[in-house]
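Today's session is about reading a structure prediction critically. Students often jump straight to the picture, but the first step is always the sequence itself: look for stretches that repeat, for charged clusters, for runs of hydrophobic residues. Only then move on to the predicted structure, which in these notes is written as discrete structure tokens rather than atom positions. Here is the chain we will use throughout the hour.
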Amino acid sequence: MLQLLAIHALPVLTAATAAGNAVLTAWAFVAHRRRQVALGRTFWMLLLLVLVVLAGQVVTGALVAVSGARPRTSLHYLYGALVTTGAVVQFGLRPQGFLRVAMTRNEAPFREPRSLAIVCVTQMLLILRAYMTGAFGH
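Below is the predicted structure for this chain, in token form.
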């Protein structure tokens, strides 16, 4: 259990997912300012890489919680759930993703760069807040 906790608490993993989302936010914002309709394949590959690292964090955190360890504040659970939800949204908005299909059913255009910039910046902030509640208890 201590090994899982050590992995879950690695600041480098938190930094990687937060920085990855910061890069994705900037990328999507620039694409939006350039009036691009879609983000490229490289963007989506980087997003999937960030989500793989984040999935490792979520799984180790869930296993640590199931084993009986508790964070300094129970708010960490809330932020963990919100980060997980954000990851599902990011994954679902990819081309042919389940959320993308749902969002493009109506006549309104789906503005991919703007939507992903908002989702990625939100995800970055949630990751940082989850780290703060887990590491510092506030």
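Discussion point for the tutorial: The chain is about 75% helix and 0% strand.
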